[in-house]
Amino acid sequence: MSDTHSSSLLAIVSHAKEYGFIYPSSEIYEGLQAVYDYGPYGAALKRNVQNLWWQSMTQLHSNIVGMDAAILMHPRTWKASGHVDSFEDLMVDNKDSKKRYRIDVLIENHAAELSAQGEKTRAQELLEKLQALLQAEELAGLHTLLLQEKIVCPISRTANWTEVHRFNLMFATKVGAQEENADTIYLRPETAQGIFVNFLNVQKTARMKVPFGIAQIGKAFRNEIVARQFIFRMREFEQMEMQFFIQPGSEEKWFNYWQQARWQWHIALGLTEEKLRIKPHAQLAHYAKAAVDIEYQFPFGYKEIEGIHARSDFDLKNHEVASRKKLQYFDPELNQNYLPHVIETSLGSDRLILMLLCEAFTEETITEEESAKTRTYLKLHPALAPIKAAIFPLVKKDNLPQKAQEIFKSLKYDFPLIYEENQSIGKRYARQDLIGTPYCITIDHQTLEDDTVTLRERDSMQQERVHVNILRDFLLEKVSFKSILAKLPTIDSVLI
């Protein structure tokens, strides 16, 4: 057996569709750009990931609770948060192709081309100019830089550009029965604001003391113009966010803690540590005092999967002013009121799924005697795999299906299983490999004699004979979240 081959994004996209993980949305109508549907195994994988994250936040930590805020919020929420005025991309249109592009993406792609051609110094200088112009919000300067570098539209191959303009990323809709009297509201572009406006509700009803966190999983919507790289950047996506409320002045301690804790969480999933890195932000968001990204090396390069941000008291302060409602916390230990500061961990659920698929997609060349063949399988952590085990009767006769069904029924209340009796056992093994099922259990004639079955492990393909009585306990040990959660740090040691 040879080393695994590196996988391309195209191969992963094809595999995800063919084996029931992710489909283009509305495909029978030619699809909708940057919108995707999760199939049977993709939905199960996503649910497993979300449940693991939820438990690692709310179950491991006595001072983190969960909530589920509505997608639709009062429009003043987004004015107070700064999204109405500043949640935008800087865009430029090509007059010939009629296509719209993000100016920073055009220039960054050009810099990457220069670097690939050996002009790394010039590429770095170009990126530094770009950052300076973005920070100064010099739209005219960005347009001039685009022309000076002779950057052309990928479609028309011309540099016939419009002026640079702002484009707000929020989706607007109407609330009200009559169009003329309806109010404009927005689909939320992030889930964090639902936590901030409920800060005191949660604190009081859950009887929480600072420091404490509020976790949430939910949909968010952004009208991305540059939506690409499969499910990495979508217009409808899901976030797993936790806002951790702390005493002012303790930002450095908690920022460092959550940066390390989130790094260890990704490692515990079985990811290759060499493919992960922590990258500080070169340019901070309007609300941030400090920020880093955890990035993964996708087939298309290092990209962010999770951000850790020190948000100061920006959000609570702005909502307090805009709502004219007091949001301060009374600290009984200090005997004073204050607005807590916030450390945020924000993880893209869909990006995490793509990362897991990229990490798990494995192609191996297996040499048998003088021939070689390629074996493809998904090397998912057993706790995250959509299906935990498959039950196979060796043949469809001699009471083997009846015995297999008996074992299937005894395990199905504890684990998601597949029962299959069609085609050869080799083809059935191969199908389960392709969806990442960690264990296959085969019932044969010996099973009828001594109640033992053949247990096959996905990655090694090794088989062993085990008694049916140990199957449940074996699977519980191998596929339980405990195998991941036990590796994670808890906050208790920091609070002492």
Q: Taking all residues together, what is the mean pLDDT?
A: 91
- Identify the CATH architecture of the largest domain: 2-Layer Sandwich
Please list the strands of the largest sheet in the order they lie side by side: 3-9-10-16-13-12-11
Percentage beta strand: 25-35%
Structural domains: how many: 3
CATH homologous superfamily designation of the largest domain? Bira Bifunctional Protein, Domain 2
CATH topology of the largest domain: BirA Bifunctional Protein, domain 2
Q: How many strands, what sense, and barrel or not for the largest sheet?
A: 7 strands, mixed
How many helices? The count is: 18
Write the layout of secondary structure elements.
Elements: H1 9-18, E1 22-24, E2 36-38, H2 40-58, E3 64-66, H3 75-81, H4 83-86, E4 88-93, E5 100-102, H5 103-116, H6 120-136, H7 139-148, E6 165-168, E7 171-175, E8 183-187, H8 192-197, H9 199-205, E9 212-221, E10 236-246, H10 251-268, E11 276-280, E12 290-298, E13 301-312, H11 314-323, E14 329-331, E15 336-338, E16 341-348, H12 349-360, E17 361-368, E18 371-378, E19 389-393, H13 400-411, E20 417-419, H14 425-435, E21 439-443, H15 445-450, E22 452-457, E23 463-467, H16 471-479, H17 482-485, H18 492-495
Parallel strand pairs: 3-9, 19-20, 19-21
Antiparallel strand pairs: 1-2, 4-5, 4-6, 7-8, 9-10, 10-16, 11-12, 12-13, 13-16, 14-15, 17-18, 21-22, 22-23
